[in-house]
Design brief:
The chain is α/β, with parallel strands linked by helices. It has 2 domains: 7-144 and 309-365, Rossmann fold, CATH 3.40.50; 158-307, 3-Layer(aba) Sandwich (Rossmann fold), CATH 3.40.50.460. Helices cover 33% and strands 18% of the residues. The chain is built from 12 helices and 13 strands. It has a 7-stranded mixed sheet, with helices on both faces. It has a 4-stranded parallel sheet with strand order 7-8-6-9, with helices on both faces. Strand 1, helix 1 and strand 2 form a beta-alpha-beta unit. Helix 1 runs antiparallel to helix 3. The longest helix has 20 residues, at 158-177. It starts with 6 loop residues before the first strand and ends in a 6-residue tail after the last strand.
Length: 412
C-alpha cells in the first residue's frame, strides 16, 4: 500500500451535520492504520489554519471509546468557518502563509470536510500547489445536509437529517391530529434548502402505514404560486380539519423573489453572497390566515435538522466514516485535487462504493432534485424519491448516555 510519510491535517467547514465528526474519525483511523505519525486538526477550518490554530488529535482520540463518542457528537468537533479563500492571482501572500504552515508542521496531506464552498477551497489550494510544483495533496470529503454536491450519489449528513425531518413530521402530524378542533388548522413546517429541495423532499417518508403524511410538499425546484397554494388549502380544509404543509425555506415566486422576502426575511448575506433565509413558514401562515380565516401555526426546524445526532442514521454514520477513510487512501496513492464520491451500485441490498472525482467538476456546482421526481401538480414526490432516500435513513446508533443525556466529545 502507498504511504504518507509526513503528517496530515483535517478541517471542517460550512454548516455542520449530525455525522460530520464520523468523517474525522474515519480520516484519523485510516491515518493511524497507515502509520502516520501526527494527525492535526485545524480549529475553525482554513481560517484557523491561517492563524496556526491547530490541535493534536492524538490527545483526544488515543482510545476507541473517544472515537465512538466522537461519532456520536453532533456539529463540528474541530469548529467550522465560512471563510472565502481568495483567488491566488494577486493574493499570493495568503497562499504562501498556508504553505508555510504546512511546511512548519510537516503536513503532507490536507483533508477538508465540507460542501460546495469548501470544495472550492480544496480546488484553489490544489491548483496553487500544482502551479508551484508542491508535493502536498488536497482531498475533499463531502458533507452537507443539503445533499446538493454534484457527481456523488448523496452526501454524508443528508441521511440523518432526512431521518430527523421525517420523524419530526410524523410527530407533529400526530400532535395536530389529536386536537379535534371543529375549524381547520394549518401547520406549516419550514425545512432547510436554499436552491435544492432534498431535505423537504425527505418529508415524503412520513407518509407510511401509520401516518397520512403531509398534505403538500413544496420544493425550490418548482416556481411557487401563492394563489394556487391557498386554493389547495381551501380544498383540503373542506374535507378535513388538520392540514400539514412542508416547505423548503428557499421556495421562490415567478419573479425570482424568495417567499420569505415577502415577510422581510433574506435581508442579509454571508461572505459567499448567499442570502440568509428565514421566516418562509411564518410568512405563509400569515397569508393563509388572512385569506382563509383558518387557524395557522408555523414551525421552523432550523438547526435541529442538522444537529440531531440522537436521530442519526447508522448508514449515514458508517458512510461518513468510510468517506474519510477512503480520502486518506486516495492521498496515499498520490491523488490530489479530488473529492471522495459515493456510487450506488446496488439498491437491494443497498450498497455504495467509495471513489474519487476531479474537484474541478464539483466545486461551486449544485445538484437539485430531478424535476421528474416531483408530481405534476408540484405538491409532492414520486416513488423515485422514496427509493432514493429510504436506504439512507436505515439503522440506528444508540448514544452513550451520561446522567441521562447523550455524551459528546469536546475540545479542551
Amino acid at each position: 500500500m502507498a504511504k504518507i510519510t509526513g503528517n496530515i491535517v483535517i478541517g471542517q467547514s460550512g454548516g455542520p451535520t449530525a455525522v460530520i465528526n464520523a468523517s474525522v474519525a474515519g480520516i484519523y483511523k485510516a491515518a493511524k492504520d497507515m502509520g502516520v505519525n501526527k494527525v492535526y486538526g485545524m480549529v475553525h477550518g482554513i481560517q484557523g489554519f491561517l492563524e496556526r490554530n491547530l490541535i493534536s488529535l492524538e490527545e483526544y482520540l488515543d482510545n476507541g471509546i473517544n472515537i465512538e463518542i466522537l461519532k456520536r457528537t453532533p456539529s463540528a468537533f474541530l469548529g467550522t468557518c465560512r471563510y472565502k479563500l481568495p483567488e491566488a492571482d494577486g493574493n499570493e501572500a495568503v497562499y504562501e502563509q498556508i504553505f508555510r504552515v504546512m511546511e512548519d508542521y510537516d503536513i503532507e496531506a490536507f483533508f477538508y470536510i465540507g460542501g460546495n464552498d469548501s470544495m472550492d477551497t480544496v480546488k484553489l489550494l490544489s491548483d496553487y500547489a500544482k502551479a508551484h510544483d508542491r508535493k502536498e495533496r488536497f482531498v475533499g470529503i463531502p458533507k452537507t445536509v443539503d445533499n446538493d454536491l454534484p457527481v456523488t450519489d448523496h452526501c454524508p449528513g443528508y441521511g440523518s437529517a432526512a431521518k430527523y425531518i421525517a420523524t419530526s413530521l410524523k410527530e407533529v402530524i400526530r400532535d395536530v391530529e389529536s386536537t379535534g378542533l371543529s375549524n381547520p388548522t394549518v401547520l406549516l413546517v419550514e425545512i432547510m434548502g436554499r436552491h435544492a429541495g432534498w431535505l423537504a423532499a425527505a418529508s415524503v417518508l412520513a407518509k407510511c402505514e401509520d401516518c397520512a403524511g403531509a398534505d403538500a410538499i413544496y420544493l425550490p425546484e418548482r416556481v411557487f404560486d401563492i394563489d394556487n397554494f391557498v386554493e389547495h388549502i381551501r380544498e383540503v380544509g373542506a374535507k378535513k380539519n388538520t392540514i400539514v404543509i412542508a416547505v423548503s425555506e428557499g421556495i421562490k415566486l415567478a419573479d425570482g423573489r424568495f417567499v420569505c422576502e415577502l415577510g422581510g426575511g433574506a435581508d442579509t448575506v454571508d461572505v459567499f453572497g448567499h442570502k440568509q433565509l428565514s421566516g418562509c413558514a411564518l410568512t405563509l401562515a400569515g397569508i393563509v390566515s388572512a385569506r382563509t380565516g383558518f387557524k395557522t401555526r408555523a414551525i421552523e426546524l432550523s438547526t435541529l435538522q442538522r444537529a440531531a445526532n440522537h436521530m442519526a442514521s447508522l448508514t449515514d454514520i458508517d458512510e461518513a466514516m468510510q468517506a474519510g477513510y477512503h480520502g486518506v487512501i486516495a492521498a496515499a496513492e498520490g491523488k490530489t485535487g479530488v473529492m471522495v464520491v459515493m456510487e450506488r451500485v446496488s439498491q437491494q441490498p443497498y450498497f455504495c462504493r467509495m471513489d474519487t472525482y476531479d474537484i474541478h467538476n464539483i466545486a461551486n456546482g449544485e445538484k437539485k432534485v430531478p424535476l421528474e421526481w416531483i408530481t405534476e401538480d408540484g405538491r409532492g414526490l414520486k416513488e423515485e424519491m422514496l427509493r432514493y432516500v429510504r436506504p439512507l435513513i436505515m439503522g440506528e446508533v444508540l448514544p452513550v448516555y451520561v446522567d441521562g443525556l447523550p455524551a459528546h466529545l469536546v475540545r479542551r
